[in-house]
Amino acid sequence: MVVGTAGRHLYLRRHTGTVWQWERVGTPPAAQVVRDASLLAVEASGALTAAVVDGGAQVWLYKRQAASEPWINLGGPSRDPSLPESLDTSQIVTSTTHHDTATENTLVVTSLERPWIHQGVEPDGTWFPITPDANLPVGQLASAPASVAPDTEPQQHIFALLHDRDSPEDSQVGVALRENSVWTWIDPGGPPTDEQDEPLPTGVSIGLSATSIRDNSGTMHACAVVGTGSFGETTISMLIGSGHDWRWVNLGRPPVPESLSAAVVADKGPDPRPGDEPLVVGRVGHTMWTRSVSGDWTDRGTTPGDVAVVDPMAAFEDTAATAQRRMWTAGVSSASELWTFASDEAGTRWEDHGSPGSVAALVGAYTDTWPDTAHDHPVRMVVIDGHGDLWSGELGAALDVGFGDEVNQDWKWSFHGRPAAAVTSAAGIGVLSMNDDYPQPTWLFVVGSDGHLWARTADAAGWAWVDHGTPGTTIGSGTPPIAVNPADGPIVHVLADDGRLWMRSRSGHEWHWSDRGTPPGQLIFAVVGAAALATAAGTPPLAVVVTGDGLVRVSAPDGAAFAWTDLGTPTPGEKIVAGIGVEVVTPGTVDIAAVGSPSGQVWTLRWTPGGTPQWTARGRPGEAHIQTVVGTMPDPANEGGCLVAVIGSDEQVWVTATTGPDQTWSRWDPSVPATTVLEGKAVVLLGEMPCSVVIDDRRRVHVVTTPRG
């Protein structure tokens, strides 16, 4: 199977031996996105090749077997400069006809809602326009071979859903075929009428799909399926025929009150059996249904436990099935996961394939700017995928509209790749963005697989990777960057493998490493966080750590060097085993949050340089154990304190405030109760909204916050 992700990258789902595996293809050379893809066989071996159309309507073949150069550029249609780029939702369909021992592949691509055709898969081939009418832009495409007369070789028939540019809801089906070496568009007539003898409009939401069938004499016909009728009362109509001879068949709809949401016709392969009727699979509500032309609708049920609502995207009949019909269907759930099911007379068997682009780690989040400051600012999440590549996801910032438990809007993912060809992103450090300027200076810090500190930086020149190297030893982890002087950019604290704290900072245009060392006689166990704290001497960068003896210590500049201050532990028998975060709560005071042992509870420490540490027991969420920490964040409701977020043993986000009652916790529930959380980071978005950016057990990203309004 070939699938595309929200980041516009290509993945293959391949069955090898007894297991399924995801294979990431990415994008063609010099292309940033993949618009659409199809599979076809271009070799005698039958090995499948992906035909891909990129963001510029250029077409590429991807041959996995050609490891040295798997991509072949087939060129693409000429662009019409008079049409807006916003119309470019390029599609591609492919089909193959067999003539004795020879095969011919046909590729059809839409560019700016106009169709173009390419015969064969040779790079020096020509793309020809086959536009039906300038006033009838092409929406969806399908293709199937058919014989225009008995005992003749099949030829390609291109189906297109045509709509009026002024009335997109009014659509019609057009068919193109080659006559005397010229592609001709044929009007097959309208679909069946309703009870009042009114033409039924062709639905766009159901889509268009096609296959080939043979009648009892063995003559091959084309068969296309579309939705007809108004929304909520949509039925399935089938167009069967070839050449200029077509007939419509109304298949109706499953006998249930819900609306029909999706349907496809099953592909019968290159050599359909004579007299074998076409099969259709559709979804109504949560349930899948199938039917043939002469049969009735059959209820195929829901996913096991009704855990997902799946739209069928493609289906084909298993030609190995001789004793009974077997249809194999692939679909995408509302949670953007791939599902397949096999249906036959014995029932339905589902398989959950998950998502191809799993998230391995969070880096951070920030609020971006637009040139027009009156425009809503988008929010960007930065993550590392399972291949060690960096991505940023953009969410339009109507974020507080209906922003209750969880943001559930469409993401736009941008690919940042790897720090270097042989270096992957091994861990996320954090994000810093200066939102006073446009373009917005931004730094996305990661630890590379080479042990170096790397930054993906954005300025007026665009995005670039910068290697910050190491302080002489491998970097293991770090804490999110801070800014003391915005003109100097970020300050990053990292923990090296030698157990010492190091600081990466810039003075003017020069970057340098500063050794902040270790407390006397101790190695550092973890870096809790860093903050820019206002003092009489300026705004020095403080770094808070936990040492091997379970104590909290602070490193602060002392003249030209750095000095350590011992903040101790909450009680004589309690040790600190994990840091949560550090926040400035007044110009000269910080709140430090950590987890203690053996109590397993959260402690907060309020400290002013030169003052006495004030420890407060915050308890545990629901009196249960803490699974992992999320972080701290400013509390927009009370500038004199901060919020502390953790993940409880129930695998949900829990939050407490350092200005509230000592042991009061609230749970930020997900909108889907079955969602469980593995890890997260605490952030404030849009300047006022405290959030946790989290990864769930299916490696998906969520933004959760307290319900509002």
Q: Quaternary status of these chains?
A: single chain
Q: What are the low-pLDDT stretches, counting only 5+ consecutive residues below 50?
A: 397-409
Count of helix runs:
0
Q: C-alpha Rg, in Å?
A: 30 Å
In terms of structural class, how would the helical and strand content be classed? mainly beta
> What's the end-to-end separation, in Å?
44 Å
Helix content: under 10%
What can be said about the biggest beta sheet?
Answer: 4 strands, antiparallel
In the sheet with the most strands, the strands line up as 4-5-6-7
Bin the strand percentage. Answer: over 45%
Number of β-strand runs: 54
What labels would you give this structure?
709 residues; four-stranded antiparallel sheet; 54 strands
3D architecture notes:
With 709 residues, the protein is mainly beta. The protein has no helices and 54 strands. The strands form 14 sheets. It has a 4-stranded antiparallel β-sheet, with no helix packed on it. The chain has a 4-stranded antiparallel β-sheet with strand order 8-9-10-11, with no helix packed on it. The radius of gyration is 30 Å and the shape is elongated.
Please describe the topology of this protein:
Elements: E1 2-4, E2 10-16, E3 19-26, E4 34-41, E5 48-54, E6 59-62, E7 71-73, E8 92-99, E9 102-111, E10 114-119, E11 128-129, E12 138-146, E13 155-164, E14 167-179, E15 182-186, E16 202-214, E17 220-228, E18 235-242, E19 245-252, E20 260-265, E21 279-284, E22 287-292, E23 298-301, E24 310-317, E25 326-333, E26 338-344, E27 347-354, E28 359-367, E29 379-385, E30 390-395, E31 412-417, E32 425-433, E33 442-448, E34 453-459, E35 462-467, E36 475-482, E37 491-496, E38 501-507, E39 510-517, E40 524-532, E41 541-547, E42 552-558, E43 561-568, E44 575-586, E45 589-597, E46 602-607, E47 614-619, E48 626-634, E49 642-648, E50 653-657, E51 666-668, E52 677-685, E53 689-696, E54 701-704
Antiparallel strand pairs: 1-2, 2-3, 4-5, 5-6, 6-7, 8-9, 9-10, 10-11, 12-13, 13-14, 14-15, 16-17, 17-18, 18-19, 20-21, 21-22, 22-23, 24-25, 25-26, 26-27, 28-29, 29-30, 30-31, 32-33, 33-34, 34-35, 36-37, 37-38, 38-39, 40-41, 41-42, 42-43, 44-45, 45-46, 46-47, 48-49, 49-50, 50-51, 52-53, 53-54
